[in-house]
Write a structure and sequence with these properties.
Length: about 160
């Protein structure tokens, strides 16, 4: 039995979506890139993923139109970092809904704390994924901060191409 099927030509849009997004690494990479972690080494270290697996996923994500690269200078060398495309930014409601679902329906481990999805436009926490539960405005990556107390960190999301 094959571990994975090719659903890219299926009529069902859920199957076609899962053909691209069905690997958990894909959504975790999109999450990190939207948080501004776009360099290969950062992604590898942050995710705890092998270089070979990360390289394959990044190639797949570029081919699927989720990521693109931009050049930057470091140590006199031109390098590339990964940035989200509009297609990846469109996954924000899905990622936020996964976070909300995880907060509600999974057991928080010892040392954990409630993650807040803060809508910077109004400054309030939202408990919805697509529109702010406080002000009703649509949620865009550049308007969101994920507050992660267990890391003592706030991650302001980046817009597509950012």
């Amino acid at each position: 039995m094959a571990l994975r099927s090719d659903w890219s030509t299926e009529l069902c849009p859920v199957r076609r979506s899962l053909d691209v997004l069905g690997d958990p690494w894909i959504l975790l990479i999109v999450r990190d890139v939207l948080h501004g972690t776009g360099r290969f080494e950062q992604l590898r270290d942050n995710l705890g993923i092998s270089e070979a697996v990360l390289s394959r996923r990044l190639r797949t994500m570029r081919e699927a139109g989720l990521l693109t690269t931009v050049d930057y200078e470091r140590g006199g060398r031109t390098r590339q970092r990964y940035v989200a495309t509009d297609a990846a930014a469109d996954l924000l409601p899905l990622l936020q809904q996964l976070a909300i679902w995880g907060e509600r329906h999974t057991t928080e481990p010892d040392g954990g704390a409630h993650m807040t999805l803060r809508h910077e436009t109004c400054g309030h926490e939202t408990t919805q994924a697509e529109t702010c539960s406080a002000c009703g405005e649509p949620l865009r990556p550049e308007d969101m901060t994920w507050v992660k107390p267990w890391l003592a960190a706030e991650h302001r999301l980046r817009p597509a191409g950012g």
